[in-house]
Amino acid sequence: MTDVRILTDLLVIFAISIGIVFVFHKFRLPPIAGFLAAGALIGPHGLNLVSDIEQVKVMAEIGVVLLLFTIGIEFSLAHLAAARRLLLVGGPLQVVGTLFLAAAAGLVAGLPARQALFWGCLLSLSSTAIVLKALAERGESDSLHGRATVGILIFQDLAVVPMMLLLPLLANPADSVNPEVLLALGKSVVLVGALLAAAWYVVPHLLEQIVRSRSRELFLLTIIVLCLGIAWLTSLSGLSLALGAFLAGLVISESEYSHQAMAEVLPFRDSFNSLFFVSIGMLMDARVLVSHPVLVVALVGAVLIGKFVTGAIPVMVSGYPLRTGILAGISLAQVGEFSFVLAQQGEQTGLLVGESYQVFLAVSVLTMVITPLLMQGAPHLAKRAEAVQRLRRWYPDKAAVQMQQESRHLKIKDHVIVMGYGLSGRNLVRVLEETEIPYLALDLDGDTVRREAQNGVKIFYGDATNPNVLRHVRIDDARVLVVAISDPFAARRAVQIARGINPDLHIIVRTRYLREMDDLHQLGADEVVPEEFETSIEIFALVLQTYKMPQSVIVQKAEQVRKEGYALLRRGELPDLAHHLRRGTLTDVELDTCRIEAVSPALGKTIGQLSIRPRTGASVIALTRRGVTESNPKEKVRLEEGDVVSLLGSRDQIRRAMGLLTDETMP
Question: Phi and psi at residue 273, in whole multiples of 5°?
Fold first, then answer.
C-alpha cells in the first residue's frame, strides 16, 4: 500500500503542476513560481491532497542533489576566466553588499545577529534558472548586460558553498571553537581536496574506459553513481548532500565527457527538481499573506529595490555603462532557488523559526513572479536613466571620456564604423583591412579592446548608444555603420541615435530574429540581416550543392526565398548575363562554373580528352586561370588545379558535366 500511496501522491503532484505551470506560461510567468503555487495548493495548508509529505521531501532532496550536480558540471576554468572581472569585482560586491544591507536591516528590526546574517545570505542569492530563461527568451544571453548578469550569477553559485559551510557556525556559534568541530572541518577540507584530485587523475580515466564500452546505459549509471556516491561521502564528513553533489559536478566538469553527462542527467534533474519546488510550496501557508499583508508587501518592495541597487552598482563599478548596470540590477532583483536550499537547512538548525519561514517563502515567490515583468520594462527605465545622465552628469561617462582622449587627434573620413567586435565584427574588420577601406571599431569588452589594439586593430572602448561616443568616432563623416551586437535594445538605440546624427549614413544591422526587422527599418536601418533567415538559406544552399545543382539555380532559389521572406531588404542584382539567361530569351539555358580541385578526376586531362559536349551536351564557353579568362578554350588545353570552367547548357546537361569534372564515379 505504501508504494501505491506514493504513486498516487506523485500523480496528483505532477497532474496539478502541469495545469498550473501551463497557466503561468500563458501569462509569461516563470515555471518555478508555478511549481511553488502548485505545492501551496495541494499541500497541508491548501487542499491537503498529498498524504505522505515526508516521502515527497526525500525525492525533492534528490532534485536538489541533481540541481547542484549539473551546476557543478557547468562550471569550468574557461567560464571562470571569461567572467574574471565580475568574479573578482562585481560578484563579491553584489553578494557582500546585499548580505550586509539585509543583515543591517535585520538588526534594526530586532533580529539576533546570527539570524540577521543568515537572512543576508538568503537574500544575496538570485535565481539562475529564472534569469537565464528570461534572457534566452528575449535573445539577450550574449548581450553586454546578459554577460554581466551571468558573471554575477556564477559568483553567487560559487558563494553557496561557503554559505553552506557557514550554517553550522551560525546555528551553534558557541561550538565554533570546539576541537571536535575543528576536527570535522579539517576532515571536510581533506575530503574536498581528495575529490578535486580525483577530478584530474581518476575520473577521466574511469569515464574513458566506460565510454569505450559504447553502452549508453553503463555511462548513465556511472554518472549517477559518481553523483550520489560523492554526495554520500561528503555527508559522512558532516557536509550536506547538496554540497557533495556540487563537488561531484566539478569532478566531471574538467572531463571531455562533461557535455554528454549533462545531457544524460538533465531529464532526471528537471523531473526531481520540480518536486523540490513543489515540496517548498507545500510548506508555504497562504494565510501569511492575509495575516501580514503590509509586512509581506513591504519586504517584497525592499528586496526588489535593495537587490536592484546592490546589483546595478557593482556592474557599473566593474566598468560597464549605466544602461548595462540598470538592466543587470533588475535581472538580479529576486530571491534564488538556492536560497530555498539554505532556508530548509536554516529551519532545521533553528535560524528560521515560527512565521519567519513562511514570510520568507511568500516574499521569495512574489519576487520570482514579479522579476520577469520588471525585465520587460527594464529597457525603458534604462533609456530614461541615460537621458537624465546626459543632462545631470551624475554618473561619469567613462566611455565618452576615454573616447575623447583617444580620438582627440583622430582624422578619418568616409569610413565604416563597426559596432561590436564579435565574430561578425571581427570578420568584417579583416575584410576591410584587406581591401584598404578605412574603419573604426567599437566594443565594450575592455580586455578585447586592449588585446586587439595591441595587434594593430583600430578599435576603441565605447558604447555606440551614446551620442558622444559616436561623434568621437566621426560619425558625421562616416559612410557606413554596421551594428553587429547581440543586444536587441542597444541595436535599436544605436540605429535611432546614428540616424539622428547623420541622415545620410548607410546603416546595416545584424539581428538574431526576423521579427525585429520592421522595428529596425522604422528606426532608420537601411539593411537588416536576420541570422536565423540567412542561416536557413545557407543550409538549403549546402544541400543543393551536395546534389550538384548548378550554382545559378542555388542563387536563384536564394534570391527567391529572400524576396518572399523579407522584401524590405535591398539585395544586389545578379550579373546581367545570368539575369538574361534566367528571365530573358534563353529561358531553357543555364550558365554555371566549376572549379578544378586537387582531387578532381579531370585534373591533368585536356578538354578534348574529357569529351564534355559529346558526353553531357554542355558546352565549355570559357576557362579562367590565375585571374585570366579565355573564351572558347581549345580542346588541347590541359586542366590545372584552380582552373574555373564556365559551362553552358540545360540544367540536366550542366549537372552531368559537373559530375564529370568532380565525381570519380562518373563513366
Answer: -65, -35
Q: What is the DSSP letter of 506?
A: E
How far apart, in whole angstroms, are the C-alpha atoms of residue 299 and residue 291?
Answer: 14
| Eight-class DSSP state of 625 | E
Does residue 557 fall inside a structural domain? no
536 belongs to a structural domain:
no
Establish if 455 belongs to a structural domain: yes
User: 189-219 pLDDT, tens per residue?
Assistant: 676 677 667 656 777 778 888 888 878 788 8
pLDDT tens figures, 601-646: 888 899 888 888 888 888 888 888 877 788 888 888 899 888 888 8
Question: How far lies 279's CA from each of 40, 58, 344, 568, in Å?
Answer: 9, 10, 11, 52
Tell which of 385, 414, 432 closes a domain.
Answer: 385
Contacts of 279 (CB under 8 A, 6+ apart): 39, 53, 56, 57, 60
The model's pTM: 0.63
Specify the DSSP class assigned to residue 639.
P
The helix/strand count (H/E) of the chain reads as 31, 10
Contacts (Cβ under 8 Å, ≥6 apart) of 274: 14, 17, 35, 63
Q: What share of the chain is helix, strand, coil (3-state, %, to 5)?
A: 65, 10, 25
Query: Are 226 and 129 within one domain?
Result: yes
Domain boundary among 364, 385, 406: 385
User: d(Cα 497, Cα 467) in Å, to the nearest integer?
Assistant: 7
Kindly state whether residues 290 and 402 are assigned to the same domain.
no
* Residues contacting residue 343 through CB under 8 Å, at least 6 positions apart: 122, 352, 357, 360, 361
| Residues 380 and 407 occupy one common structural domain | no
If one counts the domains in the chain, the total is 3
Map residue 485 onto helix, strand or coil.
coil
First-to-last C-alpha distance (Å) of the chain: 74
Whether the CB-CB separation of 525 and 504 falls below 8 Å is answered with no
Residue labelled with grid coordinates 576591410: 432
Q: Is residue 27 part of a domain?
A: yes
* Beta partners for residue 507, in sequence order: 481
d(Cα 187, Cα 243) in Å, to the nearest integer? 15
| CB atoms near residue 179 (< 10 Å) | 7
Q: Give, in order, the Cα–Cα distances in Å from 383 to each of 90, 517, 638.
A: 23, 21, 66
